[in-house]
Amino acid sequence: MSSSTAPHAPGREVRPVTTTPPTPSAVDTVAFADPPTLGRRQVLTADDPTPSFGARLRGAGVRVLRASAAIVLFLVIWEVAPRVGLVDQVFLPPLSAVLESFWGLLVSGELGKHVGTSLTRAGTGFTIAVLLAIPLGIAIGWWAGVAQFLGPFLELFRNTAALALLPVFILILGIGETSKITLVVYACFFPILLNTIAGVRTVDPLLVKSARSLGLPPVRLFQKVVLPAAVPTIFTGIRMAGTSSILVLIAAEMVGAKAGLGYLITYAQFNFQITNMYAGIIAISLVGVSINAVLVSLERHFSRWRTT
Amino acid sequence: MSGAGTVEAVAPAPAPSDTVPGTVPRLRLEHVRKEFIVRDATAGRGARKRFTAVEDFTLDVRAGEFLTVVGPSGCGKSTLLDLLGGLTEPTSGRILLDGEPVTGPGLDRGVVFQQYALLPWRSARANVEFGLEAKGVARAARARVADEYLDLVGLTAFADRYPHELSGGMKQRVAIARSLAFDPEVLLMDEPFAALDAQTRESLQDELLRIWRATGKTIVFITHGIEESVYLGQRVAVMTPRPGRLQTVIDVDLAGAADPGSDDGEHDDVRSSARFGRYRHEVWSALHSPKEDAHV
Predict the structure, then answer these.
(1) How far is A111 from chain B (nearest CA, A)?
(2) Distance in angstroms (rounded) separating the CA atoms of residues B71 and B62
(3) Where does the record place the ABC transmembrane type-1 domain (chain A) (predicted)?
(4) Rounded distance, CA A202 to CA A195, Å?
(5) I want to staple A273 with a disulfide (CB 3.0 to 4.6 A). Which of A54, A239, A268, B226 is the partner?
(6) pLDDT less than 70: residues of chain A
(7) Nearest 5°: CA angle at B71, between B117 and B29?
(8) Which CATH code for domain B21-108+186-290?
């Protein structure tokens, strides 16, 4: 760990720091009399010198080990416990047997078919919810009249669990795709709506005032100030909706469906294909984690300016 | 090169600050009065009463003048600035800009707020471009003008930085560049340096004077600092509160006050010259009379 400020040191900042040559304009040198952030940054890098490649690799290794230890331990117990007879092998087969079934389902294309079906349903419902909830949330957040009119109504439905309405959706919309997608729309709608309302309402009033002082008409003010300011909050809602879309869909598919991950699990259970059932559950976890990862990175992309 | 030269190429040549007497003032306030309806806690629930923030305010601001408005907090300074900015309308009286009544916000006035009001998702350059977008300047010209004004405030190297990557003083420079870039007639500044530390404030005061001389803008600068008002203003308008009214206007001439060998002594620090001290005291006395109780 050399503490020398290597000129070629791979910077941790996103942009190259252009401090070393003082600005050529002589008049403007006074401009830097106030303590600029750059000075502090240099101090920071001096305290925290860029570690060598080996040290960084070691650091990353330790991090990965620590982060995955609990999962690895869980998987080991899953493998060992049935084998030594701690639990009944019939009801909880060892992990290796489950992975074997998982592989079989994957190769036969059956797993892909079910995942595809579920993702299509979830994606459709999610998209419809985004398209409905964001404009409505903006309207409620911006116009007090709309909020007064729709507030109590939405509050009533927000507190009605999505799954409680599943029988209603099935009765009215039948057992096909429509009722399942509707359920997903319903479950995704509220997180997006509530976060959009919050995002629009919490825009810094000073930014609005400053934009108004430029004589910006309301539409432009909305487009240039209110909406960009609300985007990070809206994306938090979108991420929450993405998670719940899969959760409620699986439940709906367990009640009545001919394909989908929920169907795969119940079908396997009815036919006593216990390893397939666990394979389906693992597939759900993986799908959920991937969706969340995509949405988190999207959220981060849109809230970069929110740092500090 | 210094920014001043390049900026003059974009902005129209600044009018000489000592305009011909008898011409229309840049800004004119005629018996301006502003009332608010506020909750009256003493008179029980739901009670309302009138509160006068600004009372019978009459003042002319010459083109190219640097006018400071000083007063204690709550004396209606910010209300006055909102009125000038067109963000709120006077209850009675008139505000004229170049002889035309002010009816709302507009790009003929630029406002600089104490808390910078920069858009946090835009880089310094894009923030300066914001006012130009409102003005309808073409994209290519926007970037060019923004860079010229960032140069004027000494932030060329920071054009691509986001507000959270800048210090308070730098943020305020960006805000000043933004308000100058769309070339308003008048710059309205609402305690712009109040949130900064003393050293940064002093360097920004000198910067502002330099920018004012380079651009020839008319500046109305609101502050609660007596020294700041004397240091910056050609004239200091003193306001007293409840209701906020104009107490007096004091002409300030500090030219040569800091010259070595002048009657004030040898220092090159204007603020410690005897003349500065006299003006400071004059403003202080105006603030403390006749309603002593209001500022204790």
Answers:
(1) 43
(2) 21
(3) 115-299
(4) 10
(5) A268
(6) 1-51, 306-308
(7) 80
(8) 3.40.50.300
Domain(s) labelled CATH 1.10.3720.10 in chain A stretch across: 102-306
User: What is the pTM for the complete model shown?
Assistant: 0.71
pLDDT in tens, A185-196: 999 999 999 999
Instruction: Write b or e for each residue in A141-155: b if 16 or more Cβ atoms lie within 10 A of its Cβ, otherwise e.
Output: bbeeeeeeeeeeebe
Give dist(CA B61, CA B109) in Å, integer.
Answer: 13
Q: How confident is the model over A47-65, as pLDDT tens digits?
A: 455 667 888 888 888 888 8
B chain contacts of residue A215, beta-carbon cutoff 8 Å: 86, 104-107, 134
Q: Phi then psi for B78, rounded to 5 degrees?
A: -70, -35
Q: Which residue of A has its CA nearest to B207?
A: A31
Q: What's the rounded Cα separation, in Å, for the pair B11 and B181?
A: 9
What ipTM does this complex have? Answer: 0.79
Closest CA to B244 of B91, B104, B93, B74: B74
Asked if A158 and A194 count as a contact pair (C-beta separation under 8 A), the reply is yes
Question: A13 to chain B, minimum CA–CA distance in Å?
Answer: 11
Interface A-B, measured as beta-carbon pairs within 8 A, has a size of 113
User: Could you give phi then psi for residue B100, rounded to 5 degrees?
Assistant: -100, 135
Which CATH topology does A102-306 take?
Answer: MetI-like fold (1.10.3720)
B173 Cα distance to chain centroid: 14
**Cβ pair B162:A216 closer than 8 A:** no
